[in-house]
Amino acid sequence: MASKLEFVQYAVDQLQEAGEIAYRKMFGEYGIYCDGKFFAMICDDQLFFKITEGGRKLWPELEEGIPYHGAKLHFLIEELDDRRRLAELARVTCQELPMPKSNKKKGAADGKKDAK
Fold first, then answer.
1. Which residues contact 107 (CB under 8 A, 6 or more apart)?
2. How many Å apart are CA 18 and CA 105, to the nearest integer?
3. Residue 42's CB: how many other CB atoms inside 10 A?
4. Is the dihedral of CA 81, 64, 27, 93 positive or negative?
5. What pLDDT does 113 receive?
6. Would you tell me which of 34, 37, 88, 92 could form a disulfide with 54, CB atoms 3.0–4.6 Å apart?
């Protein structure tokens, strides 16, 4: 069952204090980004965060779940009403995640092809 856009927009709104929050439709569900880092997803109208040590320390009672068949375990965020706590969890999570890799191909940085 695909997530409802209204739920996605609500979750994104609740995370606004964390930074620049964006979402992207992915395989019928949604990926959530903070300042360009993919850190969470929404599947079946449920919010899942990537698991990090900082997140575990900040919110030790979080349950874990699998957002979709074949996925790794994620934190399942069932309480979305505490905006500050959600934003802090997003910040802590993103601090531990690597920056996204650039999609630029070698030699294409200046927009020119090698002349031979």
1. 113, 114
2. 31
3. 25
4. positive
5. 44
6. 92
pLDDT tens digit sequence for 27-48? 889 999 999 999 999 999 999 9
Long-range contacts of 56-65 (CB under 8 A, 24+ apart): 58/88, 58/89, 58/92, 59/85, 59/89
pTM over 0.70: yes
Report the candidate in 63, 68, 2, 56 with the shortest Cα–Cα distance to residue 29. Answer: 2
Q: One-letter amino acid identity for 8?
A: V
Q: Which two tokens stand for residue 17?
A: 């204090």
Torsion of CA 90, 13, 60, 101, to 10 degrees: -30
First to last CA, the chain: 52
Q: Six-digit token pair at 67?
A: 């957002």
